[in-house]
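To make this tangible, this section ends with a sequence with its structure tokens:
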Amino acid sequence: MIQPHFATILDESPDEVIRPVPLARGTYEAVVAGPPRYDESSQKKTPFAEFTLRVIAALDDVLPDELEESGGLEDRTIKHTLYITDQAKWRIDEFHEACGIDLTVPATRRQRNEECVNARVRILVTHRPSQDGETVFAQIAKVMSSD
């Protein structure tokens, strides 16, 4: 994916604000693009691992008109955030299984996170409103095995 040159973006003089259209709702094939980014949430300071998934194909439940309106799939990525808490660790394990990792083989969750790189998965994308209700964001509702 081509990264924007920030000096060029800052030198532009737009006459209107154009918000990107969120990825259309539905199921997609995606690939884990690289190792996760580790950080903590801004509000509650909850630690998380954030994976970038590169969307490679839309399945039958994605409406072609909505996909076209959202800008298609070229260079399209979506973030998948997994919180690192006792209550949410099952989600990390579920993601690892969807990536094809055998949980019976001894390894730490951090090691398994690294093993997810280049794994092919299916994702169910839904929409959620922003906190102020002004915008809609695409989010991953579920990650499944691509088998």
User: Anything to note?
Assistant: The beta strands are 26-32, 37-40, 47-58, 77-83, 120-129, 136-145. Residues 121 and 146 are 5 Å apart (CA to CA).
